[in-house]
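Let's practice the habit of predicting before peeking. Look at the sequence and jot down your guess about where helices and strands might fall. Then scroll down.
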Amino acid sequence: MSPHNRIALVTGAGSGIGAACATALLKDGWRVVFTGRRADALQAAIAAAGDPFGDIAERAAAIPSDVGDEHSVAALFEQVKARFGRLDLLFNNAGISLPPTTPDELDAATWRRAVDTNFNGAFFCLSQAFKLMRAQRPMGGRIINNGSISAHAPRPGSIAYTATKHAITGLTKTAALDGRPFDIAVGQIDIGNVASDMTARMVAGVPQADGTVRPEPRMQMSSLTDTFMAMARLPLTANVLFMTVMATKMPYVGRG
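Done guessing? Here is the structure:
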């Protein structure tokens, strides 16, 4: 592989899935903007990625942003445009999960925090990506939204997280349709139990639909990044609208 001029932006890139996918893009030759709330975490993620082509200072940028704030997102995309001139891929990855709770125990502020980050943030970034991608030449680009297994089936006590991930599915379907005239391909990757800090509790045990608490298997991060890169590398004449990648033995398919 060798460097090329395709530009990617990854939200929530300071750790976990975001850092892993941003690193995979760098190693594939992309120029990558790492964004998230903490500048130190973004810089650490870039340092951990290594320097496969000897030009990391030119091909990786850490730009802090709060995706839940539309003004912060607008400023982020202005910086992307100023530095790189275009955007070829947006990975809408930033999100938060919450401790299990029933609807009556979930306060309004926590609900809004989940919606602002998981859903509003995805829309703000997608909206700005559309604005840039339809105006640039060559026109177009790809947007991959991070959904979840919860975009299809909920876990007990996950009403805020699950509702936002169902909303992401609606965002993906509509944006995929609206992007057609502008050569903007929009798809969604739904992930189940990838090994990361967010899923560490699954090793000890998590609540199941039958009322029990049981450990769940996890898959390696490389299984996710390989799947993600297969979507990212597609020409704009092809699109993976929905992709599910999951630990083979996790309790998702069937009764639970």
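How did you do? The chain has eight helices and nine strands.
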